[in-house]
Every structure is written in C-alpha cells, then in structure tokens.
Write a structure and sequence with these properties.
Shape: elongated
Strand content: 25-35%
Largest sheet: 5 strands, mixed
Strand order of the largest sheet: 2-3-4-5-6
Number of domains: 1
Distance between the termini: 49 Å
Number of strands: 7
Length: 181
C-alpha cells in the first residue's frame, strides 16, 4: 500500500507568483470526473464526488504573499464496521502566508543551518520558487479533514463478548491435559 506522499498529486494548478499584481488573483479549482477518480485512488477512498477550491492570492511585498482558500468536497469511504459506503461533506476555510526565499534550498545544500519549527503555525511557509502549486494546500487540507475511521450513521463498533463469562485459566487447561495422560 502506498501513501499519498509517494504518488504524484492527482491535481495541480501552477501559478507564477511573480505575475501577481497588486489587485490579487482568484483561482477556482474544480477537477473533472477523471481527475476526481484519480484523487480517490490517490487517497485510497471509494470516490470523491465533488471537489471545489477557491483560492485568493494577494501580494504583500516583493517576496510575501497571502493564500486564502475555501474548500468544499464530498468523499465516499467504506465504513470501518460494516464496509457500507459512507459519504461525508468537507468544508474548510484556511489561510497561509507565503515567503519567497529563492536561495533556501541552495543554502541548505551547502551545509547551512535551516531551522524548522513545526509548532510555529503562524510562521510563513517558505518557498524556493515563484512557481507555486495552488492545488497543493487544498489537497493537504483535504487529506487532514478526511475521517480516518468513517462509520455509517448509527453504527458503533462493539467488542465481541467472550463465549463464557469467565475465561478458562491456562492452569485449568494443563490440569485437564495431565488428567488425560
């Protein structure tokens, strides 16, 4: 079984941030049925019935940008108890700050210290090139929003009851074996 990180993303929308004007830019990302099928395969779910992302980009300086997105999607997964199809709706709004640092990868390759703090969610996302995939953050948020253990409505997992009220002791089993010998 492969993970989404090992397979190229099924949808992509490259935009060159160097072309972004002061007025900003809005992109609507709506994959067709074929791309939604690829997305479902990538996520290892039954189907992605709908996926729409609206991305707004704004320039805040020569190398600073904001990325605001609305994501609406419908995903069909198998119930972890009954294996019946379970449809869920995902609705997310999120914001990212992008900071273009063209030399970030070259600096790291030369043995320079690059400090990443995963706990600092307010820090801007550092990008090395102005060509940016607008679908990438939408896919990241989509993956995070999917229920890892979907259940059909009203279904609960129940631990099977033991066949007898009191489990048989291993010593009782040995005693029975000794009695037969």
């Amino acid at each position: 079984m492969s993970s989404p990180a090992e397979i190229p993303a099924p949808i992509s929308r490259i935009y060159d941030l160097a072309d972004l004007s002061e007025a900003g830019y809005e992109a609507r990302i709506v994959p067709d049925a074929k791309d939604r099928a690829k997305l479902a395969e990538w996520l290892e779910v039954e189907a992605v019935d709908a996926f729409e992302g609206i991305v707004e980009l704004r320039r805040h300086g020569h190398n600073r940008f904001s990325y605001d997105a609305d994501l609406e999607a419908d995903v069909v997964q198998s119930c972890v108890v009954t294996l019946e199809p379970v449809t869920s709706h995902i609705s997310r709004k999120f914001h990212r700050e992008l900071h273009l640092i063209p030399n970030v990868h070259r600096f790291a390759d030369k043995g320079g210290a690059v400090t990443l703090d995963a706990a600092d969610d307010d820090a801007p996302e550092e990008i090395a090139r102005s060509r940016y995939d607008l679908a990438g953050p939408l896919l990241e948020e989509f993956v995070l929003a999917i229920d890892p253990y979907p259940r059909a409505p009203g279904v609960a997992f129940e631990v099977p009851a033991p066949e007898s009220d009191k489990p048989e002791s291993p010593f009782a089993v040995l005693k029975q074996l000794k009695g037969q010998g």
